[in-house]
Write a structure and sequence with these properties.
By secondary structure, the chain is mainly β. The protein is built from four helices and eleven strands; from the N terminus they run αββββββαβαββαββ. About 5% of the residues have low confidence.
């Protein structure tokens, strides 16, 4: 069953979402557009992009209502890739035709005659906002509005760092002094001091004397000793990034009967 205009007007103020055919959320409900000739809802915009500043048009053919959400018959990619149409007061027949062609459907009436945005009026009701003219229900002033860009930040994970300890082998060379004993023959002449020792043995004999020689050799030992402690820390670095987004603002023209002079107010 087709969604009624009353349902759409209620959903537009409920803060609900537009959901894809597979149940995936596409974005929040934006604005409702009604058929210019029948007044029946034909399109809804979906707020996507950073802070919901971008709007994509989705046909309401075969759409259903679940709670405060609208489930459309298309997937998220189809909606995000839809032709860019400025969400102003009215969709032209040409823009409407491009949208229907993108979604692979035809106009419910067989032809396009333009679609108008519906929204709350000064009396609290709904109707095409492009038809607001002076009358008994309006005062003598016109409200001019404009969009303001709100830019914020959010924290997200940018990467991870880990400490990993592993073993490497390197060659260390050191020089150490070593000593050794060598044999040296010492001869001393016979004097009055040593003549007694010289005659203490036999006159003629065979003898052997042995001397033990010593030397030093390098000895290597290894021990593990702590040399430093390492930990990971973080610091905050602030950069400047430029964010660019289109914002809309209303302008008011004054048509004077004399000479049709046009004056513009955008302040």
């Amino acid at each position: 069953m087709r969604i009624s205009r009353t349902q759409m007007e209620s959903l537009a103020t409920s803060g609900g979402n537009v959901v894809a055919a597979d149940g995936q959320k596409i974005g929040s409900i934006g604005q409702v557009y009604v058929d210019g000739s029948t007044g029946e809802p034909s399109f809804v915009t979906v707020k996507t992009g950073l802070f919901g500043t971008a709007e994509s048009f989705v046909p309401l053919q075969d759409a259903t209502v679940t709670g405060s959400d609208i489930r459309v018959a298309y997937n998220k990619t189809e909606v995000k890739d839809a032709p860019r149409v400025d969400p102003d007061e009215r969709i032209t027949p040409e823009e409407e035709q491009r949208l229907y062609a993108h979604y692979g459907i035809s106009s419910p009436r067989g032809h396009t005659s333009g679609t108008e945005r519906t929204g709350p009026s000064d009396t609290g009701g709904y109707g095409p906002s492009s038809n607001d003219t002076s009358g008994a229900t309006t005062d003598d002033a016109m409200t001019r509005s404009e969009e303001r860009l709100k830019v914020g930040t959010r924290k997200e994970e940018a990467g991870r760092a880990r400490l990993r300890k592993y073993v490497v082998t390197e060659n260390v060379t050191q020089t150490v002094p070593v000593s050794r004993e060598e044999v040296r023959v010492e001869r001393e002449p016979i004097t009055d001091k040593n003549v007694g020792a010289a005659r203490s043995g036999p006159n003629i004999s065979e003898e052997e004397h042995e001397v033990v020689l010593h030397q030093e050799r390098p000895v290597v030992e290894k021990e593990a000793v702590p040399v430093e402690r390492v930990r990971l820390g973080t610091e905050t670095v602030t950069d400047q990034e430029t964010v660019s987004e289109d914002v809309r603002k209303e302008q008011i023209d004054t048509d004077l009967d004399r000479g049709r002079t046009r004056r513009r107010s955008d302040r």
